[in-house]
Amino acid sequence: MSKGASITRIRGMNDLLPQDTCVWQRVEAAAREVFLRYAYQEIRTPIMERTELFARGIGETTDIVEKEMYTFDDRDGTSLTLRPEGTAGVARAYIENGLHVSDPRARLWYAGPMFRHENVQAGRFRQFHQIGAEAFGMDHPAVDAEMCAMLLDLFASLGLKNLELQINSLGDAEDRRNYRSVLVSYFSGQENRLCENCQRRLKTNPLRVLDCKVEGCSAIARGAPHTFDHLGEQARAHFEGLRECLDAMGIRENAGEVPVPGTFRINPRIVRGLDYYVRTAFEVTAFTGVGSQNAVAGGGRYDQLIAQLGGHPTPAIGFAIGEDRLVSVLNSEQTMEFPGPDFFVVAFGAAGGAGALRLVSELRSAGFDVDLDHRFGSPKSQFKQANKSGAPFAIILGDGELQSGMAAIKPLMTLEKLQAGGVDTELVSRLLDRSKEQPEPFLATENLDGAGVPLLLDPSGQFSVGRDWLIRFCSRLFAG
RNA sequence: GUGGGUGUAGCUCAGUUGGUUAGAGCACCAGGUUGUGACCCUGGGGGCCGUGGGUUCAAGUCCCAUCACUCACCCCA
């Protein structure tokens, strides 16, 4: 520790350490793969936009715009804002780049950090990460259904079980207004029995009362008028269409108590917070792994937004996944082993330094992941590093190996672990010592069986690896 | 913006009614043992006890303030 006060990260913005990033990479790779299957293309937009974009797009009176944005003036006085969500920027890019001209349809996905100045708690940060998708130019419910399917596919490909997709229809803008006033008059009759929060919600966002966790409120909410009874003709048809399309894709409704992976539940109490949503709204809820912030993804249709932002009227729908929350659910369900390199080169004596690098670079150019300890300390310390690296094999270069012209290959794991890593175990068991229960260390040089790495000595006394042989050998080791 | 909890080693935590030089486990480094790494043995590095003030002969411990972290409300991903 140095003397001065140490500089810390700023509240709500977290470091993702190497043990974290391997999980994040897995999530992002899965997302990329699934989105590609649905013919979505990646878009990257700036992390900052003019404040006006969010004020107009998200809604002036939402919490996000009113009190959660990181807003500041650029040097010329322009008001800029760190993006609090992804849709507005993508919509802006769609309009600004005239993506509708060549093809009004656009299916896009994005991933990246978002910023909201909120109080932090489990599952809520000031810099958080979303993976989102947007589909422009299509108002058919088939698109809504595909969005849902895409989410379910992603969760399935990650092996997640404790999540549930819930869908609802908010109706068109007019239906929403009507339903809102019906709700207000229903709740107003029993206003004094609602909790303090809900009495306030009644004025600001009455739909939220339906969602209240307080016992008394939810009891009253159960008797409240149903959204579906207040859908207009078109919104109702759209929602029916969505259900048909889901059914056509084999995605079933789950009306039972217990969540079932790969199904959806109709939940009339799903309410989206942002102003622009109409018709389809959906949300993915987690049962484990996140604190009380259990919404892992949310989305819906926003057919008016593009026009509101100055584009041609264009229907659109999208969702955003809270990547931080998704990762935390994933971590609660399964543990991931950090993938190690294929080989760890242990070199000592005359073989340290440049000699080791020669072997390492041969291996790397043959396409293997290789690590070594550049301090070239004692064999013991290098083997400790090798063990920790997670590499299944060590390749050993010492004075003896240089003399014999063969580097040793030594397994660092039990046979079972090697098997689990997809290594050709028939070959390995020949390499390993007799006992299978308790695989012991051994030196390939003692038991060659063609298993050492041949080293070719050049006239200057330097060695190089028998590369063709090595590739053949290694590709057998790592078959499949 | 509002409420609760917690601050002692890199991590998880002990630390008595205030009383020598603040401890353990894990991790890290070195040495020993070993079939060159794992198990075991020995040793080592690493602490402004969150920070500032107060009480006292004496504060990690008691009092006040402050900061940070954390969980929850609101709201959202």
What does this 3D model show about the protein?
The chain has 480 residues and is an alpha+beta fold. The chain folds into 2 domains: 18-172 and 232-333, BirA Bifunctional Protein, domain 2, CATH 3.30.930.10; 343-477, Rossmann fold (3-Layer(aba) Sandwich). It has helices at 18-37, 51-58, 63-68, 87-96, 99-102, 141-157, 173-188, 196-204, 215-222, 233-248, 305-308, 323-333, 354-365, 379-389, 399-404, 415-420, 425-431, 467-477, and strands at 41-42, 48-50, 70-73, 79-82, 106-115, 127-136, 163-169, 264-266, 278-286, 295-301, 316-322, 343-347, 370-372, 393-397, 406-411, 453-457, 463-465. It has an 8-stranded mixed sheet, sandwiched between helices. It has a 6-stranded mixed sheet with strand order 13-12-14-15-16-17, with helices on both faces. The chain has a 3-stranded antiparallel sheet with strand order 2-4-3. The radius of gyration is 29 Å and the shape is elongated. The relative contact order is 0.10. The chain binds one RNA strand of 77 nucleotides through helix 3, strand 6, helix 8, strand 10 and strand 11.
The CATH superfamily of the largest domain is known as Bira Bifunctional Protein, Domain 2
Count of the separate structural domains: 2
| Radius of gyration, taken over Cα atoms and rounded to an integer in Å | 29 Å
CATH structural fold name of the largest domain: BirA Bifunctional Protein, domain 2
Helix percent reads: 25-40%
% residues in beta strands: 15-25%
Gross CATH architecture of the largest domain: 2-Layer Sandwich
- What is the CATH C-level name of the largest domain? Alpha Beta
- Multimeric organization: single chain
The structural class is alpha+beta
Number of strand elements: 17
Instruction: Quickly count the helices.
Output: 18
Strand order of the main beta sheet, please? 1-5-6-11-10-9-7-8
| Gap from first CA to last CA | 47 Å
Q: Which outline best applies?
A: elongated
Question: For the report, how would you describe the main beta sheet?
Answer: 8 strands, mixed
